[in-house]
Structure formats: C-alpha cells, structure tokens
C-alpha cells in the first residue's frame, strides 16, 4: 500500500502540473486573442472613419476632427473614441481612471494597452496612427471594455479547474485500484514467501503465476528456495559425515591409547594375579587352618576387586562416548585420569602427580569422555617425551584471562589444566606445528600425529583453547583453557 500511495502521489502531481500548464496556456492564448481581436476591430473602425476624419481636417483642422469623431461615436455602440493631437505639449493624454499615459503618436505602428479601474472593469485602449493631408500625423484612441473576453477567460479557467479535478479523481481511483491489485497484492505474497525462506521453510512453489515481471520474480525466488533446500541437505549430509569422521578418528585415537595402556595394565595386573594364584594354591593344599583360609580368601577378594577396578577404568575409557554436556569437576577428572595412566607411568619410571587444592571447585561444562581423552593424550605424550624417567605434574586452577582472538567469546573467567613434564622439550618450530594433523616429532611407527590435533579440536568445541610453552631439553607445559561453569560455582 505504501508503494501504491507513492505512485498515486507522483502521478497526481504530474497530472496537476500538466493540466495547470495547459489551462494557463489556454487562458493566456484566449486573452491574447481577445486583445488582438479588439485591436483589429479598432483598426477597421478607424479605417472606416478615415475619409470623414480627413474631410473634417480640411474643413476645420484638428478641432473639427474631434467633433466628427464625437458625432460618429453616437452611432457606434461599445466603443469610445477620441482624437490624439500630436501638437499638444508632451503628447501626454489623460485616460479616465488610469492617470497619464505617454502616447507617442509619431510612431506609425498600432499600439494597445489594457487598464483596470477601481471597480475591476478592464478596458483596452487601442491607438491607430493616421497621416492627414500635409503630412500631419495623429492617432485615434479606441477604448473598448473587455467584459465579454474576461467572462470567457473565467469560464475557461473554471472548465480547466473542473477538468483538473475530474482527471485527478479518476487517475487517483485507477492508480489506487491498479496499485492495490497489480502491485500491493503480489508484493505481499512475495514478501511472505521471502519471510518463509528466511525462517528456513524451503521448497515452496512460486507465490505468483502471472506472466509478468512479478511472476518471473516469484519463479526466480522459488528456484532459489529449491537450490537453498538442496544446499542445506548437502551441508547437513556433509556435516553429519564430518562429525562421524571426527568421532571415528577420536575413537581410533582412544583405542590407540588403550593399546598403549594395555601394556602398563598387564604389568599392573601381574602382581595381584601372582597373589591370587599363591593364595589359591595354599587353600587347595589343605594345610591351612580355618583362620588362614579365611584370610587368604579375603586377600584374593581384595586383589580381584583391584583388578576389576583397573579393567573397568580401561573399558570405560575405551568405550565410544556420546556428546552429552554436563557440569564437570576438572580436579576429580584429572585425578581419575591419572589413576588410569599410573600403570603406564610406572612402567616408564615417571612420577605422575596431581597438584590441586581439594577444597577448590574448578568446574566446566562439557563431555566427560572427550575431556578425559584430551588429558590422556597430553599425559601420554608427556610420558613418551621422558625416555629416562622423570616427573609429570598436573595442575588445575581458575584464572581471569583475555581469550585469544580466535575465541569468539566475551567470557573472561576460565579453568586451566596444566600438564608439566621434564621431558626433552621442543623447538620453536615444533611448537608452531604441534597441533597440526599428522605432524609428529616421534620416530616412524610410534605415532600418527593425530592425538594433539584431536585434543585441540575437542577443546575448541568446548569453547576453549590449548597453548604450549616448551624449550629444548627443558621440558614442556601444555595448558588447557575451558570456560568456567559460573552457575555451578554460584551454587
């Protein structure tokens, strides 16, 4: 409707301008024609009186001319005439109700002037020059009212005004109806379809089927909607495939870590299995007293529970996990992961400890299995970087920090989990590429180069980042930054 109103306004202004210009031109031409007609009538009248004026001049000079004109004026209706004598001083004649008018009668051209009196009556004074015998010049003034012509002009103006009003009303109605039917209604349909597309509703048929520009636009919008639908389906399929690939890579990396842990677990299970075997042998020999049999059975039960706990931890870690996010205590998660990695650390003669305040609550929101995989990867890499034994310390705390530019978040309170080792360290070049896929500093066959890349991706998905500080032969420090669960801390 706004567009139709604008079109109506623009069209009406144009029509008003054209009709007004046309009416003004008609009135001007009619006034000019009326004045020209009066002037021609005056010339014809003077030409008809010319013999009489010449005869009067011969009989008695210019005085006799005026008397002859006065006699003729009585027989002529509608026109007033008088003789303009060029011999009078300054050639200035007085026109009734108009003041003094300078009339140069020596000119041989016909002149005219229109003057309105105080009552609004308009008269036209036409001056017709005459040359009398003896080269005496003068002029006859013919005054004639313009009542009829002014009335015609007013009637023309009124007719033009009525025409203007009629054209405006008719044009306004036609444009309003046409704008409402031909523009406003199709535009509303197109806008509705575009809004549906903006809300994600694709695949609609054309909103308009007319064979004009609106129909072509509607068809183009419908085609665009169909292409967007196809692209969305393609993107969803590719995204699903990418997520599945990520999950598979993470699970493969997890299973690779499980294989590494299995060697340490096997060594860890050796001692309790020997205890169980020995105690079972003593019981089966029948040489133990009832009290010794009971003590041996308790020992077997205790060692079996210990082995069960170790195996359960390993199975829980190896199991494929989902992506359900919940509040996580990072200190507890770090301790559980260290317990799982202890057999591998002992086998490598590495002292693995967690340094965190038990009374401190450092929580974040995320997937427990994925974050445990991150910590496991970092500890596993740290163990492999210590070939001759050493120390690995896990620190957990919170800190106010400005996140890097790649993290699109206004959050400034983050949990920090540090993995500090006394290994061989890395050069600056190695630290620049350490999170790139398939980049590894290990020997051929000892790693795929995907562990840190997968860990980095998991942390980024949780709204955080990983940074590293390392010097060659001075060890490395990996810091995992994750958003603090403020709601949990407030409780």
UniProtKB/TrEMBL annotation:
Keyword Kinase: yes
One term of GO molecular function: phosphorelay sensor kinase activity
Keyword Acetylation: no
Keywords linked to the UniProt accession: ATP-binding, Kinase, Membrane, Nucleotide-binding, Phosphoprotein, Transferase, Transmembrane, Transmembrane helix, Two-component regulatory system
Enzyme Commission number: 2.7.13.3
Domain Histidine kinase: 264-486
Superkingdom: Bacteria
Limits of the HAMP domain: 181-233
Catalytic activity: ATP + protein L-histidine = ADP + protein N-phospho-L-histidine
Organism: Gimesia fumaroli
One Pfam family from the record: HAMP
SMART domains in the record: HAMP (SM00304), HATPase_c (SM00387), HisKA (SM00388)
Protein's name in the database: histidine kinase
Lineage: Bacteria, Pseudomonadati, Planctomycetota, Planctomycetia, Planctomycetales
Subcellular location: Membrane
């Amino acid at each position: 409707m706004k567009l139709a109103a604008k079109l109506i306004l623009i069209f009406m202004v144009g029509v008003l301008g054209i009709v007004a210009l046309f009416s003004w031109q008609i009135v001007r031409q009619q006034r000019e024609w009326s004045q020209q007609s009066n002037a021609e009538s005056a010339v014809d009248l003077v030409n008809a009186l010319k013999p009489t004026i010449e005869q009067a001049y011969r009989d008695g000079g210019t005085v006799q001319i005026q008397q002859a004109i006065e006699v003729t004026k009585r027989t002529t209706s509608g026109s007033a005439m008088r003789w303009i004598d060029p011999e009078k001083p300054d050639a200035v004649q007085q026109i009734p109700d108009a003041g003094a008018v300078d009339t140069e009668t020596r000119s041989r051209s016909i002149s005219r002037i229109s003057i309105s009196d105080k009552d609004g009556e308009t008269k036209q004074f036409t001056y017709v020059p005459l040359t009398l015998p003896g080269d005496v010049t003068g002029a006859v003034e013919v005054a004639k009212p313009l009542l009829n012509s002014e009335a015609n002009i007013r009637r023309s103006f009124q007719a033009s005004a009525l025409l203007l009003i009629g054209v405006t009303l008719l044009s306004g109605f036609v444009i309003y109806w046409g704008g409402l039917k031909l523009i406003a209604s199709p535009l509303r349909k197109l806008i509705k379809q575009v809004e549906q597309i903006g809300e994600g509703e694709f695949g609609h048929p054309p909103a308009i089927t007319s064979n004009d520009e609106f129909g072509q636009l509607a068809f183009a919008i419908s085609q665009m909607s169909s292409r967007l639908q196809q692209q969305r389906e393609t993107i969803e399929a590719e995204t699903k495939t990418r997520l599945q690939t990520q999950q598979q890579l993470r699970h493969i990396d997890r299973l690779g870590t499980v294989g590494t842990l299995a060697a340490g677990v096997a060594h860890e299970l050796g001692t309790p299995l020997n205890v169980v075997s020995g105690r079972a042998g003593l019981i089966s020999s029948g040489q133990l007293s009832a009290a010794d049999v009971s003590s041996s059975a308790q020992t077997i039960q205790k060692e079996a529970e210990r082995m069960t706990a170790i195996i359960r931890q390993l199975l829980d870690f190896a199991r494929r996990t989902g992506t359900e996010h919940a509040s996580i205590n990072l200190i507890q998660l770090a301790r559980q992961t260290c317990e799982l990695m202890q057999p591998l650390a002992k086998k490598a003669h590495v002292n693995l400890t967690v340094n965190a305040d038990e009374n401190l609550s450092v929580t974040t929101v995320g997937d427990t299995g994925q974050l445990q995989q991150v910590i496991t990867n970092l500890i596993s890499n740290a163990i492999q970087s210590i070939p001759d034994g050493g120390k690995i310390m896990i620190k957990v705390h919170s800190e106010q920090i400005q996140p890097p530019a790649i993290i699109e978040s206004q959050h400034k309170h983050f949990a920090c989990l540090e993995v500090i080792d006394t290994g061989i360290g890395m050069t600056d070049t190695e630290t620049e590429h350490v999170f790139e896929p398939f980049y590894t500093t290990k020997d051929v066959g000892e790693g795929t180069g995907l562990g840190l890349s997968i860990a980095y991706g998991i942390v980024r998905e949780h709204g955080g980042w990983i940074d590293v500080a390392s010097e060659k032969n001075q060890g490395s420090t990996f810091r995992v930054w994750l958003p603090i669960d403020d709601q949990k801390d407030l409780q």
